Amino acid sequence: MDSARVAHMKSPLGITDTVLRDAHQSLLATRMRTEDMLPICPAMDRVGYHSLEMWGGATFDSAMRFLGEDPWERLRQLRAAFPNTKLQMLLRGQNLVGYRHYPDDVVEAFVELAAQNGIDIFRIFDALNDTRNMAKAMEVAKRTGKHVQATLCYTLSPVHSTQKFVALAEELAGMGADSICVKDMAGLLAPYPTQELVTGLKRKLKIPVQLHTHYTSGMASMVLLKAAEAGVDVVDTAISSMALLTSQAPTESLVSALQGTPRDSGLDLTLLAEIARYFGDIRKRYQRFESGLAGVDVNVLEFQIPGGMLSNLVSQLREQNAEDKYMDVLQEVPRVRQEMGYPPLVTPSSQIVGTQATLNVVVGERYKVVPEEVKNYFRGLYGRPPAEIDPEIRHKVIGDEKPITDRPADRLEPGLAKARADAGALARSEEDVVSFALFPAVARPFLEQRSAGIERREMVAAAVAARLLERKRREAVATAGRSVSGWKSMGRPIRPGVGWGV
After folding, report:
1. pLDDT at 3 over 50
2. What is the pTM for the complete model shown?
3. Among 104, 152, 267, 418, which is least packed, fewest CB within 10 Å?
């Protein structure tokens, strides 16, 4: 093919790096601190990424719960640090960044504040691919003038197919999506099904298509290459020192593989290497949070369980002193998933399915113990499952109750005014009120500690100032009329304490 023809066909592949969100959520239990992100931001801002995924998902509550950080302040600091790069967040539809449905007024306030504080691209999904649970967040994000990336959760089951995923994408496009993301949270995509899916999406859609996958199964780099060949517009990767295992494929590897081709991303490998070295050093600070996985996890292919869900299962079994039941639980998960109508295993459905599977095995009788969240799932309060729920199991769980058929959020009372009243003086901004509405049990101690910390700092500063003033007074009296040998200023003697700032 001649060079003129190649130049005409050039279509650089966009790269979204996940190191500031999903990569450390997947590898380091979402523990990376903002202070460890900020020093490398100027270099990252020069790369020319399509976007950086840096907020949402589990980072919001983890910031308050584990790090003592305000997630809104992180957003503001990173916004200031990236004047040239689009910032992107992961939003769980009506669940926002939480694990249950929130009222529409809370959804509206959250999305508007996220937009005002610096989010450019909202990646919006629902664990059940129920578009009713995505509509409100999409509508508000669209109204703010931000980019709405409607997302389909990829999974494998007898009721999921390429044709159905393409039809879902067309529905989301009709709802006003600016782009479509295929979210393969478990790393289930294989190269050739990827090619088929991307080809189908590009044929039917007039908006860009982005692909997000995980390296858990070991196929992610091959998947991204096939997606690029099929015409995908943007892909998610992670800088190499925070890639692989349950994270994303390495950014530099894909950039290098595509150099000199029509899909050449144009990113600078030298600059990326600098960023990789930085995060390689930073990662050492968080070793105690590493998952312990040594490499590719084939269990994800057999049981379709994401890496994060695997670690949660191990933790639950350890708490029950039942680690020897691990393989039994792995085998129970697909069975429970089938009975629940084949939900994709992503937050919060992964927790719901995994917890019930664990209880079924540990208790020794299936569905003898059923948490309220599982009952609510069977009641339809999380949305419409992809397939029909097993009627016998449903009866065992909720008896003769009739599952709802309307949009779950339509049954929720407004929540913002109550959150504002409950937070009281602890809330110093609308962002604080929304944090309280989302996670009252986490936000209250965080806001209390913040308030106490500020008060303590003010008290300490006042005490220090008082001591310094008293010392100045004593020293001024003691040295009155005497010069201090050797310290001169403008030819005049300097007296300690006179004219010094406190």
Report:
1. no
2. 0.87
3. 418
